[in-house]
């Protein structure tokens, strides 16, 4: 059970803004943005449920996350433990994606939605809501958020938003954060220091994890543009190794497939919670004057694997024909890569900052691209330039996909030459 020693001033504002004695009670919405781990989500979810039971009985509400899994992990699981300890009766219908919650003589229903893409808006159509809470609103498409808001037709309904900052051209920043007064929304900005449960040691650890625009966003809580190098934390002295471990716990291969554009494959091994790019294959058809077939690329994949027992081959999801070929050969377990660019870049940056992503000195094309990979600052969004990005894509595929798939504890010896 979660135990609370104290709340910060801003957390108390979020917990009580809707109360009769609050001077903020007439607002139609609350927006909480700012640093990661600043205590926004927990206090908002408690406040949302408390407000619902203070004002309504027998009504429907919505709790929304980027995905159903992230909503369950970040909101529902910790919330249920707290509500049960406070005397609420919670019936979680996982298969039907809702919770029925009762307190004393009142009972309300809370529908659970994931807003991962434009198609998610259709999921929320038709329901009538008395209120909606968005966890990580900036990661949801505008169509989903606006469809959910349109469902709130009950008198005295309110909107609840929390998020970490993105770039300053993001639709949520422009339409809600910048227009909070116009939207009659109560805006509260959080920093890590607004979470009293974080020790100085933990605060220092988080500050060491990020650099560049990610530091500005996740530590300082700023809506700032990504400029310059995508991975400024990449340091040849720290991340390039001249000697590899003799034994690895498991192996994966990541592939950015290309016919006209370069193709980049990387062989990865895990040892002592670190991941090494052991070897790579990089082929530029324009430079070489000859395009390769799927069959030829498969042969290169087999050569790259050598005698290593490969746990999975992660391939660019747009390379449908190559994925089908690898599956037909039935030698490797083939997984289409997770391809959310911004999220993947953040994960790679975190691994680099933690010193858990290392590169053997022979992986020259990957090392070269780290030095050249940069943000497209003329685009108005967080998009890297489509240059020098093929090895960077296969690195991102590995971190975003293989490291979330789960790996075996068996040890395999890499006997092929380095």
Largest sheet features = 8 strands, mixed
Spatial strand sequence of the major β-sheet: 3-4-5-2-6-7-1-8
Number of helices: 14
Total strands: the figure is 17
How much helicity do the residues have?
25-40%
Intertermini distance: 51 Å
Estimate the global geometry from the Cα principal axes.
Answer: elongated
Low-confidence stretches: 406-418
Strand content: 15-25%
Name the structural class: alpha/beta
Kindly report the average pLDDT value: 90
**Using only CA atoms, what is the Rg?**
24 Å
Explain this structure to me?
The protein is an alpha/beta fold and 418 residues long. 34% of the residues lie in helices and 22% in strands. The chain has 14 helices and 17 strands. The strands form three sheets. It has an eight-stranded mixed sheet with strand order 3-4-5-2-6-7-1-8, sandwiched between helices. Strands 9-16-13-12-11-14-15 form a seven-stranded mixed sheet, with helices on both faces. It has a two-stranded antiparallel sheet with strand order 10-17.
